[in-house]
Write a structure and sequence with these properties.
This protein is mainly α. The two termini are 19 Å apart.
């Protein structure tokens, strides 16, 4: 995304905020966060979060996405407790696994990584979920202790 598009989205977000258009504002905040994370602009994403208030009346799907992005930002900032809390919120507010399996898998992958980084062992029932079974197989090997974590690092994407 070019700097022009960033400024265009920021202007649209300010306008939506002034007009109290909560759905548009939530959507634009998430779009900006997604773009910042895509280009590894974590400081910019953190500034956006600190300077804006996510609308309370936003739909659950937008809230889930927002908390997922917050979790990713906090993970990169090594604030695992905040990342864990935000990812739990994303999981709670996420659409049904059959409606959005990709999102469900992405949130759970990061959630498992954060739990492992915190020194916790994820609940094994999580790895038996039909939507997560294949997506979390490599992570389950780490949890079981059958494979050394350093050998799997190359094959486990975070997002």
């Amino acid at each position: 995304m070019t700097p022009f598009l960033f400024s265009l989205f920021l202007a649209a977000q300010r306008t939506a905020s002034l007009r109290h258009d909560d759905e548009t504002q939530a959507s634009l905040i998430n779009r900006l966060l997604r773009s910042y994370l895509h280009y590894s602009l974590y400081d910019q994403a953190d500034k956006l979060i600190s300077k804006t208030n996510f609308p309370a009346s936003a739909p659950n799907s937008q809230y889930a996405r927002y908390h997922y992005y917050l979790g990713r930002i906090k993970t990169v900032q090594l604030d695992y407790t905040a990342a864990h809390t935000n990812l739990q919120q994303a999981i709670r507010r996420a659409p049904a696994p059959k409606l959005a399996p990709g999102f469900y898998q992405a949130v759970h992958k990061l959630f498992v990584v954060v739990e492992l980084l915190m020194g916790d062992i994820p609940d094994r029932s999580l790895f038996r979920h039909p939507v997560l079974d294949k997506a979390l197989r490599g992570y389950f090997d780490i949890v079981k202790g059958e494979t050394h974590p350093l050998l799997l690092c190359r094959s486990l994407p975070l997002s």
